[in-house]
Design goal:
Elements lengths: L1 E6 L2 H16 L16 E7 L6 H10 L6 E8 L6 E7 L3
Antiparallel strand pairs: 1-2, 3-4
Length: 94
């Protein structure tokens, strides 16, 4: 599977990881226990089996003009599937 993801600013990453730590300390499921280097707070924009040829270049062109995107974290939502607990993320005005 291929994904398009936005990574967090350092401050937001620290805040999200702190919440992961509190969930783990409370005995709840948490990504805090996953120490793999690719396990990091992120926003998944798309997930596909395979990208069409050239899409990486087109994505880079599209996002270079719009990044970074300021966001605020909203409420937590429970979903079915591999990521049962997610935060709603809202873009904020620049």
């Amino acid at each position: 599977m291929r994904t398009v993801e936005l990574l967090c600013s350092p401050g937001l990453e620290v805040a999200v990881r702190a919440v992961w730590g509190r969930l783990a300390a409370a005995g709840l499921p948490s990504l805090d226990r996953n120490v793999h280097p690719t396990n990091r707070p992120h926003l998944t924009l798309a997930a596909v089996d395979e990208f069409p040829p050239g899409v990486e270049h087109r994505l880079a062109e599209m996002f270079d003009a719009t990044l970074p995107v300021p966001v605020t974290l909203d409420r937590v939502v429970v979903l079915d599937g591999s990521a049962p607990l997610v935060w709603l993320v809202n873009p904020t005005r620049r």
